[in-house]
Amino acid sequence: MKIEMNGFDEEQIGRLLRLLPPAPEGWVRAAQELPTARAALDELVARAEHDAEFRLQLRADLERAVASAGFEPSPFVVSRLRRLLEEV
Amino acid sequence: MAVEQTDAQLVSRCRAGDPDAWNEFVERFSRYVYAICGRGFRLAQHDAEDVFQEVFARAYERLPELRSDDAVRPWLAQLTRRLCIDRLRLNARDTPSAEDPDEREADDVLAQLDEAMAVRAALDKVGDPCREILDRFFCRDESYRTIGEMLEIPAGTIASRISRCLEKVRSELDGRNRASPPS
Q: Which of A5, A56, B65, B155 sits 20 to 30 Å CA-CA off A84?
């Protein structure tokens, strides 16, 4: 996407910069941890598919079961896992 | 002057599995996605957070399918836009009094955000200390006093530094790189 910016004065530059405040740090960090969270998810889902008892534990108390399995029960992992469990 | 990678170069590194590239990707586009949720569609903070995480989750999953690495920004914009509209429609279903999303207004905001991203890219190219001073003043709304304390420079010189830094960004945008060192 090519944007023509010639002729912008300093006031306009300042106004445009104000449009992009930083996202909350926690949101950014959670998004950056996605690759790690994805790996945890893959492992948890694979285990749930083959281990009926673990599947029951997840359904009973998702966050505790994730933590007991040695993974950080981040909001992303918990919400995705809840969705994925419906398919298992 | 800082050396900044193009969007395409960054996407290419993400595809190649460079462990630092994804962090940079999120860093580069987090403000953009956040602003689309907040300014473009005025999502409540908890809705914006859900959409924000969903955008990056889908981006991570689908980045390998992106046809043109150069097109990552409009692709992210469309993805965010669609998820914001879905969220607003879901809310409207639960709360019938909620207004429909004003997509035309959101498109106007998106166009402004694209301009803002171009300015941001110019600022990144100018680099520190200008990047930090302008970011603190315009994006984080910090006072001269706070900026002075944080950067250990006299507060009385902040205004003139901001002015000089804006001029550098303008020069960068105009393609007139001046050889003066950062102030």
A: B65
